Structures are given as structure tokens and as C-alpha cells.
Amino acid sequence: MDIHDDKILILDFGSQTTQLIARRVRESQVYCEIHPFNMGLDKIKSFGAKGIILSGGPACVLDEGSPTCDREVLKLNIPVLGICYGMQLMTHLLGGEVERSAKREYGKAQLLIDSAEDLFFGLDGSGEGQGEQVWMSHGDKIKKPPSGFIALAHSGNSPVAAMRHADAELYGVQFHPEVIHTPNGNKMLQNFLFRACGCRPTWTMKSFVNTTVESLRNTIGSKKVICALSGGVDSSVVAMLLHKAVGHQSTCIFVNNGLLRQGEAEEVQNIFRHTFEINLDYVDGADAFLSRLKGVTDPEAKRKIIGNLFIEIFEEEASKIPGAEYLAQGTLYPDVIESVSFKGPSATIKTHHNVGGLPEVMNLELIEPLRELFKDEVRKVGAELGLPKKLIHRHPFPGPGLAIRILGEVTPEKLEILRQADAIIMEEMESSGLHDQVWQAFAVLLPVRTVGVMGDERTYDQVVAIRIVESVDAMTADWARLDYQVLGQMSNRIINEVKGVNRVVYDISSKPPSTIEWE
């Protein structure tokens, strides 16, 4: 059974929660892909979806130039679910009436079910007239459904808050079933996936591993492949997949740029070289990186210096591996979506350090075995492959490492201070049981000194900022509301144990408008 046989196509009309729709579908063990709203009809047909979901979006279907799709999409005899803007577009394309609502409906709302079948089948305690909490976010409403459609539910502000065609598998909901504020939203989506579309739950990480390993064997054959290993979960999972597929035909190159966390270089070598007996080429480039970074304070300059030197060293090491024809890297699905999204490639907020430029330089064919996966799926694959839990659940770490968590010039002394502070934060997150409950936790060394008192003596030392955020995919993030006792313990330990620090602050800004990293 092919894990891609039963799949869903999501057409993106610009909603901030389109990726969340995909995650909910995959959590139900059904494969799906996101494509732009203007995907050609021929491509839609050849995609072979069991069902199509039209996402929400910020536009109004009544406006000139608003995003639309080919009307024939609704005549392919494939079940279609329109969510919010997607429902309004379905109504508009099929001759119904959409009007601007006198009262914009945003936030939690009470949905009154008119038909306890279809999307609302089997909800706990549901029945006709039963109320369901849902999340609304719209300024338009359905005045008149298209011919042949019947209302499935209504709300105080939306007389048609859910609908379906009497004879065709066409559905629409005015609310967002994908968000957690719609408690039974998953069940509604599953009714569409399994009852309307007839999908089977074939998308599991165990099946992904088996399929991917077989695909890698067929692709690589008897040739050699190089993997850029950073020690993060993405590159570690790629390394394990390659090793499982082609064994010692795969070589990992691990460049220690001297900007890693405490004990990380030793840990990576121990796990891959000794525990899993993977070919590992270790390069200690710490001195070279620090030398190039001397006197540099601009964050973009730091990133470019680190990225360029990494390529130099990596290319030199790769040239020592005769017969290598492939380069594997850990590109994830959000990266793929970003390059073909509704909005197109996003504006560069800051340059990201990635090995994406290496294939052109080195003339190697690129392999991206994780390009179908979200981050949480990658972690599940890592567990399937037997990677240590500590590595699987390691928080995201930027390619330029601690260089962009030291504001200003990077020096060995500052790196030592930051490593010690960062290690204390991670120890406290682990001991308090909070490590796996947040997206990211780390320390930042600020380029300021403050007056303090230690042992009745005046000090004039460094300031460390603690940054801890909650997020789903790092596209947006909110600062974590940690217990004051935990924060207090972190602060006390850093000030007492890290020489050169006399003040600790906590970052309470969200993304947007701030970014997660400080540089």
C-alpha cells in the first residue's frame, strides 16, 4: 500500500492557518500537500487527490482581483471542502450570494447544528439543535447558498455557517475547524477525510521510513552520498535514513564551527561514530571561524562569513571522498511551501545559513528525504529510527550558532559565558519538566554592562537575556509564561555560577513583531 495513494490537495488562498489544516490532516494519518490557489486544472487532475480543501484567506470574493480557482475544480467528482473564504468562493463560483456582514464575526462562536450528519456525524452529544464551540474569522457571510445546497448549521451572525450539496460531495464551513478553538474541529475534518473522501489512514512515520529507505536505495544505487551533519534533529534524521538505506556508502561531514552549545561537538561524535557506527568526517574549524569573525559586529556580516567559510571547509572535505555523487540535506516541508506559497517567497528578514548553495558549487545531485515532513513528523521519524530522545527533542538551533546570540563581536570569552548560561537554562527546563512543552529556550548575551553588588563589592558586568517561546512551526511565536520560581532559579544560578554576569532579564516579546532569535 503506497502511503501517497490516499491524499488530499489543499489549495492555499492566503490563510495564516493553511499549514495548520495540513497538520491536522496528517495527524489523521492522511497525506496532503499545499499548493497555490491558481494551480492549473490539469495539474490538479494529475495530482490524484481523494479530496480537495479550499483554505481560508484575508480577501473578499466580492473584490476585483480576489484569488480564485477554476470553477471546474468543483465539477471533478472529487469531494471538496471550503473553509471560510473557501466556502464563500464556492458559493460565489456556483451562483450563490455572498454579502458583507454588518457585524464582523471573529473569535469564539456558538454553532447550532441543523443536521447531525455529514461533517457533524458522531460528535459527542451532538444532535439537531446542539451547540458546538467554533472559531470564526470573517467579515462576509453567505446570503443565499448556491442551487442544490442545504444548510448544515448556523450561528447568531451566519444563517448558513455550514452547508453541503444535496447530491454532490461539496461542503463548506464558515468557521475554522483546524484551530484548537474549535474543540471538535478534528472530528469534523476526519468526517470529511474518511466519510466523504474515503481515505485510509496510511500516512504513518513507520511507513514513511520504509518507503523512504527503499526510495533512497533505488536512487543512490551503488554510488556514494554525503550528508552535512549539524547535530540538529533534521540532519540527524537524514543521516540515519541514509545509513539505513545504503550503509557505509554514506559519509557525514560534521564541521565544528566553534559556535556550538556546551558539549555538543563531543555528543554528536559519540552518537554517530560510536553508537551507530556511521562514517563521520569531523572537522574542527573553531579557530578559523573565530578568526574570520574577529571585529565583526553586524549580524548579516556574521551570517555571511559563517556561511561562506562553512562552504569552503565542506567543499574541501567533500573533495576527499572519491566517487561521491549525491548531497543530502534536511529541507523540511515548510521550506518547500514557503518557496511556492500564495504570497510567493517571503521578504528576507535575515539571511538563513543553509547548505542549499553547495550542490551548485560542488556539482552534486541534491537529495532531500524530509521535504514532505513537518518538524513534529521529523521527530517521530527520529524515534522510529532509534535516535536518542534528547537529540530528537533538541530545540531548534540556528546555523550560525551562538554567533547570533552574542550581540556584537564574538570572542572566546563571550562564547564561554554564553555556553555556561545556556547550559543552565536547559538544565532547569529539563528538571522542571518544561523542556518538551516549549518550542525553544536559550540565552542571549547582550552588549551592555550594568552595575551590581557581589560580596559587598561593586561589579560592572554583563547582562544575559533569557528567551523562551511557544510555537507550532516558528512562523509565529509567543513568549512562554513560565512560573516565576523557574525563572528565578535560572537567574540565580546564572549570576552565581557564570563569572562575568551580574544581571538576567526575560524577553517577553512575541513574533511578530519580534523574531525568535535576536539577530
CATH superfamily of the largest domain: Class I glutamine amidotransferase (GATase) domain
| Averaged pLDDT | 90
- By DSSP (H or I, 4+ residues per run), the number of helices equals 15
| Rg computed from alpha carbons, rounded to a whole number of angstroms | 26 Å
Strand order of the largest sheet: 2-1-3-4-9-8-7-5-6
Structural class designation: alpha/beta
The name CATH uses for the topology of the largest domain is Rossmann fold
Number of extended strands: 18
How does the SSE layout of this entry go?
Layout: E1 7-12, H1 18-27, E2 31-36, H2 41-47, E3 51-54, E4 80-83, H3 85-93, E5 97-113, E6 131-144, E7 149-154, E8 162-165, E9 170-173, H4 185-196, H5 205-220, E10 224-228, H6 233-246, E11 250-256, H7 264-275, E12 280-284, H8 286-293, H9 299-318, E13 324-328, H10 333-339, H11 358-362, E14 365-367, H12 375-384, H13 389-392, H14 412-431, E15 440-454, E16 457-470, E17 478-479, H15 484-497, E18 501-506
Parallel strand pairs: 1-2, 1-3, 3-4, 4-9, 10-11, 10-13, 11-12, 13-14, 16-18
Antiparallel strand pairs: 5-6, 5-7, 7-8, 8-9, 15-16, 16-17
Provide a short characterization of the protein structure.
By secondary structure, the protein is α/β, with parallel strands linked by helices. The protein is built from 15 helices and 18 strands.
Describe this structure in words.
It is a single chain. The chain has 519 residues and is α/β, with parallel strands linked by helices. It has three domains: 7-196, 3-Layer(aba) Sandwich (Rossmann fold); 205-392, 3-Layer(aba) Sandwich (Rossmann fold), CATH 3.40.50.620; 405-506, GMP Synthetase, Chain A, domain 3, CATH 3.30.300.10. 32% of the residues lie in helices and 24% in strands. The protein is built from 15 helices and 18 strands. The strands form three sheets. The protein has a nine-stranded mixed β-sheet, with helices on both faces.
